[in-house]
Amino acid sequence: MKDNQHNQSVQEQFPVGSIVPLSRIDISHTDEIGNAAETSVAKSLLNRKSHCTACGDKDGGCSTCKSGSSPNEDAVRDVQDNAQDWFVEVSFKARRKQLFKKNRNGRYALSDTVIVQSEYGSDAGTITAVGSIAEMKKNNQETPTLSLQRLATPEDILRIKENREHEKEIIREVKGKVKEYGLDMKIVDAEWQFDRSRLSVYFSAPQRVDFRELVKELARIYHARIELRQIPAREEAKRIGGIGPCGLELCCSTFLNEFEQINLEHAKAQMLPPNISKLSGMCGRLKCCLLYEIDNYVSALKNYPPLDSYVHLTEGRARMIKIDIFSDTVTVIGENTGTFHTVSLEELNALRRNGKVEAPKEYQS
Question: SS3 for 362?
Fold first, then answer.
């Protein structure tokens, strides 16, 4: 009777012909076998909270998280209907982002090129967030002290283009100076501030480098404040760009703004072989895309018993050796026959409710 009621509830939730989400069937069990997520996924991943792609909030508390509308729609609506928002987010070269104050009556929209105040003079960037989205990002960091000055004029945009072209020459010249001084460093990128009062040079190196003489030489050549910044391998790939193994442009150089900690536990939770060469990206570190589906895997594995559980089939006792969350099936191998069988999640749950699934020996008390 209970099985019939359960099957009826499943059919009501997912009608015949509909696409069933990955392992999202509501399952009720009375046994204490546990699940695959608890036994095969690290605690740090099991308790991980998803990040909202719109605001970065781990608790999903912004209007975009709750309403499901896109950040662009919210931002445009805010800039049209609410003239009292006080902050905007501005993006610079290599997707470097920073919040700025704006005057109360200022009217700005996404993708506007603007001139902003900097610690030394003025800089130019592109608006990437306004309204409630910018306000949410402000709540996650210190209140900005620098201000947005004005929209960029055609002359300003021309000067920005000239700065970008000159940066290419600077990279070549600095590389020559590095070779001349015999420094063990790799020049990755250069970035002029809009008013050319500051020049930032980004480099990677296996260890700390004494570049004091190089800074003096560059200051003499370019008559500006020189900043040499050592960056990690992921940041280097982000600035250089390239094509990943998937055939698309690198995520870090297109849309990825922040890097999260990634380790082999993420690959293990997704049942990927621990092959470092296959799991590494262009930067030589573990691929950032290992984070994209980790929440789906962890959630789906909670609906399966642990690997190495024993299932009693009509063919005899079999051991569960593989879980496929995309087809909602498991693969078992007969204990006596050595033959492989594919069991659907629905069949597995029916066996489990009938007490025909045993926990692995190491989990049995």
Answer: helix
Give the residue carrying structure tokens 């069988």: 341
Q: How far apart are CA 135 and CA 138, in angstroms?
A: 5
Q: Where are the domains of the chain?
A: 2-35+303-363, 70-152, 157-222
Dihedral angle sign, alpha carbons of residues 33, 39, 44, 49: negative
β-strand pairing of 316-324 with 148-151: unpaired
Residue type, 295: D
Strand order in the sheet with 225-230: 186-192, 198-204, 225-230
**Residue 122 forms beta bridges with which residues?**
117
Strand ranges, E, within the chain: 87-91, 97-101, 113-118, 121-129, 148-151, 186-192, 198-204, 225-230, 310-313, 316-324, 329-334, 340-344, 357-358
Minimal CA–CA distance to 14: which of 345, 315, 353? Answer: 345
The pTM of this model reads 0.70
- Residue 147: name the closest of 88, 210, 80, 192 by CA: 88
Separation of alpha carbons 125 and 134, rounded Å: 15
Rounded Cα gap, residues 159 and 165, in angstroms: 10
Structure tokens at 294: 């980790």
Residue pLDDT tens, the chain, 365 long: 445 555 555 455 545 444 444 445 555 666 678 888 887 788 878 877 665 544 445 554 444 444 444 444 444 444 444 444 588 899 999 888 889 988 767 788 889 999 999 988 999 999 998 877 887 777 666 778 899 999 999 999 999 999 999 999 999 999 999 999 999 999 999 999 999 999 999 999 989 999 999 999 999 999 999 999 999 999 999 998 899 988 999 998 888 878 888 999 999 889 888 889 899 999 999 999 999 989 889 888 988 999 899 999 988 899 999 999 999 999 999 988 889 999 999 999 889 888 899 888 766 55
Measure the CA–CA gap between 157 and 336, rounded to whole angstroms.
75
- Contacts of 316 by beta carbon, 8 Å cutoff, 6+ apart: 334, 335, 336, 337
Q: Closest Cα to residue 204, out of 235, 243, 171, 173?
A: 235
